[in-house]
Amino acid sequence: MNLDDLTADELAAIDTVCLEFEECYQTDRPLSVEQAIKLFIEQHRSTPLREHIELLREELLAIETELQWKRHRASQAAESVPTPFQSKTGVPVSPEPVLGFAAPTGPLVGEQPAPEADDPVADADDPVAEANDPVAHSDDRGDSPGGGRPQATQWMTPSSDAGRPPNSGSAAASAESSDTTGGARPSDRSARGESVSAIGPYAIGRILARGGMGIVYRALDTRLDRPVAIKMLGFPHLAPSDPKRIELVERFEREAKAVAALSHPNIVELFDVGMAGDAPYAVMEFLSGLTLAEQLVAGPMSPEQTCQIGMQIAGALATAHASGVIHRDLKPQNVMLVDHHDSGGDSAPRVKLVDFGLSRVSDSAFADADQDTTRTRSGTILGTPGYMAPEQARGESATSAADMFGFGCVLYEVFYGKQAIPGETPADRLAGTLRGEVEYEHGPCEKSKVLCELIAQCLDKDPAKRPTATDVYARLRRFDLSSSIAATSPRTNEPVDRHAAGEGILRRHVLTTLAGGLFGGMLGGLSLGKTSPRMGSIQSIAVLELRDINATPREPAGAEMSLAERGLADGEILASAIVNELSAVDGLTVLPFRPLTAQTPEQFVALGEELGVDAFLTGAFESQTEGQQTYWIVSWQLVSALDGSLLDGKQFVTEQSLAMPGGQFLAQSVVASDIAKQIGRALVTSGQKSDAPDPMAYGCMMKGHAYADADSTKGLKRALSCFEKAHEEDPRLSEPLAAIALASLNLAARTDATESLAHLEKARSSMTKALEKDPHSVDARLAQAMIEWQSLDHFEEAYQIFAELHRKYRYNFQVQHQRGLLLAALGLGEQAIDALRTATKLNPMSMLIKTDKSRVDWFFHYDRRAVVDARRYRDATPESNPSRKLAVGLLIDIYEQQGDFQKAAEQQRMAITPTTSQDYFRLREDTLAEYPYGPFGTTLNRAIFDLRTLPKVDDAMLGTLSESGATMFSLLLAQHPAFFQLRISPAAARYLPSTKNIGRSA
């Protein structure tokens, strides 16, 4: 693997670390190569493979060597180089000439090197330029024929001067050397092509290009030791005080800020803007490569290559148009091809759209209310005849639709190998544009009807009928993926029409067959028999962790490991998303996701007996890159918990958006829809709805659901943070708000008074907002019921809400759990026990629910059953699992109430065995924080201790506990044995739950 094999996203990740390495090198705390690699791994946990790290190490070592050499070189020239942070405004420009030649008008970045003999200051005398210019460097060695042009490949023009634009070389150099302008203004000297040595922190090299309004230099950023291209506008025909000149400068600066905000791998990056004297300049990314115009000298490209070129341009335009920036001069000369592949084939080099947007921001972005935007604004560059849209040719204001016409012209030239609107003169091409004269040859259209139709739509005379850049990007993506799938599908004896087969397949959710290397390798010892009749009998499913094929194998975490104790893997977030979607299927019990795994039939059967489910959903996924795009391939299996046999399985391919991290989870939610269909149920997933959530918000929500383990306080806190982030990303949604409310209520139950009150306030606020957005939200209604009785003492209202939820959502474990606690507080013991027993079956992995069931058993005098179950839960849970203390705390509570202080002390492993109750409680006070009686918060746990140790109970404790925000106060006051004396106090009547107005059936 080398850098050319990396995707744009992978290159960006490596470039980020390299840039930070360079920046730190200039400080008093430079990074070592290994420190930078560690930084890369930490920042891109899901990206690095071993090959990536080795490539990065090679790059960093090369950069380190170069920086050491440049530091020595810079120290020698320190007196003549401006200070790095010199002000850009009013910078004096040195008159000493150091420039070589003027390149022709064309792309504003990207060097067109001249022969060494034509350069008065050759690269051999400028090691800084030579080290940073691979093209110029090859010139000096004489490695490339044709005056330094790279060797020909399928992606490069043959080695000749046929593709070299006119007016380059010695003629330009002669014109440059014969110019004598004396003492003209620096800005005017720049406009005429005269030499400058520095602009602020940028040491000027030679001229790269010259146009009617300015000139482009190659320069060195002395702060970062990186090559850059500087475009300087000059107006030698306008005086400094001329209003037109002032307007042009102000417009340049204003609109450059808009362009600088664009961030896309296929748009040349704008680093900086400023003023040199009275001339504005822009500092841009320096590119080395060919223009698309030069490449097209070799002839048209294949449909696959055309698609890949078009996708990159359309993606760049979509980003720009979304920010209100219009290119207005789209043509092959403004498309650079970089990162060439010498291997040939159908893979495309990376595209960079150049000369992008400077002085070309959408008129509407800055139009005043009283301005006539139908007219061309002063200073607007109309475009190039043969590529400009008809409305531009008529002098009308350009919109994003004009860019799409230019895009159609470029793609036409790439696909057909000739100009869409030919003509000997600009006037001929303008006339052809207005007449709409475009010919479509039959031969290329036979190769790809999709591309032919798309190009024709972009070249429509009516702007309203042209597709948007986003639409074009999506259509080309579909075509690219379908072509890739057709090309890589298993070959049969029948010939396959690659293009026809590919264009018929949707890109977004591509369903393939069960066969295939990835999925077939997963099946192992599982057998696929005649199992279809059993599919309809599935009533309960557990989703296991999906294995990441690309990741380094790790030890299974197991049920004893809380997810909150570590970071989430992509396979775990994806499993959480599938659980979330399947939970909406009526009549299907879906266990909450926990990091469980099984591989053999025996393991599936054993886990099925433990969890009490009918089937398991498991599988694997991997990411693959085709060209510039990454895909997720998810292969799922439905496995019987009865005998471990394979019931069903499919494979899905979805596009992973680089601009929307987390979007793959939303795209893969379609898996849940297919699974539901296989077991005879219907499901419309989040990604299939018309009001689909924001992908990033959805990803945050799924992480939150995975973390939201009520057994873990740390997990609830991490989940709350994820839910809040999801709400921030997509405020439209009710689901994050409802989730915030539930997580806050669970945290309020186990924190001290101050924190509990804060959580309750957040829960009330979030619940109210969630119900405003969706009055039928299950989680929001559940939060409302919990708040009614745990905070507001509105027991009847809570009872009615739970009765409604129980009728509609009897398979929701949270509904059954919280309903059971309310029924216990109301004294409806048998109903409470039934509800909690159901909750343990719906979520058999939750220690909290299990111990709550045993606690309610104890409250209603099933002491022996409560102790036996609590011991079983304790012994089945590793000591490393924090939730084990839930069972230990319950046993301590029961043993203390029974007066068996020796057994209570054994649970806490007290160093001294107490002989009296006084000795025990003296030691117990020191262990109360480590071994609380239950998940009641510090206030209520202390109250249980005080009620067992204080000689007299003060009625004032009732008001204190009620006002503390302790959410389980009503339950404990009504049923906990330690609260008996407080409960029978006349003052307790106002705090006790009552069934006076409540029916006996829930």
What does it look like?
- This protein has 1002 residues and is α+β, with helices and mostly antiparallel strands.
- The chain folds into five domains: 3-76; 116-285, Phosphorylase Kinase, domain 1 (2-Layer Sandwich), CATH 3.30.200.20; 300-367 and 382-487, Transferase(Phosphotransferase), domain 1, CATH 1.10.510; 510-688, Rossmann fold (3-Layer(aba) Sandwich); 793-988, Serine Threonine Protein Phosphatase 5, Tetratricopeptide repeat (Alpha Horseshoe), CATH 1.25.40.
- Helices cover 46% and strands 10% of the residues.
- The strands form three sheets. Strands 10, 11, 12, 13, 14, 15 and 16 form a seven-stranded mixed β-sheet that branches.
- A hairpin with a 2-residue loop joins strand 5 (270-276) and strand 6 (279-285).
- Helix 22 crosses helix 25, helix 30 packs antiparallel against helix 31 and helix 34 (847-859) runs parallel beside helix 36 (884-898).
- The radius of gyration is 36 Å and the shape is elongated.
